[in-house]
Amino acid sequence: MQSWLIFAILAYLCAAISISIDKFFMNKKNNEPLTTGAFKMFFDGFILLIIGLIFFNLRFSLNVLLWSLLVGFLYALLSFMYFTLLKLKNVGTAIPFYDSFLILSVFIGSIIFLNETPSLINYLGVPLILVGVYLVLSEKLKIPKPDKSISIVFFMVIIGTTYSLLVKTLLSDIEPINLVVPMYFSTTFFLSIFLLLRRPKRTINVKSSKIFISAFFGAMSVFLLYTALSFGKASQVYPIAGLSSVSIFLIASIFLKEKFYLHKLLAVIMVFFGIYLVSL
What we know:
Layout: H1 3-26, H2 33-55, H3 62-86, H4 91-113, H5 120-137, H6 148-170, H7 176-198, H8 208-231, H9 234-237, H10 241-254, H11 262-279
């Protein structure tokens, strides 16, 4: 198994655990999403800073810090719009539409802007992942109607694609740990600005230990993903995100007692087979 694939699989498994814990937080009425997100981003940066100081040779040049500000701003903006999308009623169709369309957009973008050349087998694997992700995450088997949520999804896909391709480009010259640490702190900074402008009425009301656990897996997810991107092609690494969607579905079915449907089990098989084709 190729090294980038190992890192990508571990990255998206960690992401699934982190997102599942976040979903548990958001099920509690007293939690304000952006406040929780800002705290989590800070812990993410702190965790990776400690790991970097102990196990890696951290080096922050002015150039890296400036790029991390841009990456952090895009990541914060994407998080802000994501939480806004979660408040809409038809999120059950909007979120899977976003996740699957982002995978497609990054795949195409990596070919056009990064001059990557996927094989024919890779091309066959991506549609399987797209359809599988949508079926796994969607509450109803229907295409979303044009409304406010779809407008938000459209801008999220543009921002998410820009963020993904920019990160891949930067990692050709910057070590993953040197980019991800300042990125998280800059994301925290921008989310804090969003919070000040928004002035949320609700306050965070969860145990910091649980936020720290979520932050640990979230930090490991992004660091492992950056590491995978430093070895592999973006057109192969990012489609593995389908694994995260499948893992979230399985975790939610087992631990959060969410409904289990047969068509979703078939979709899981499609995603795994698609990932196998993309990795070849």
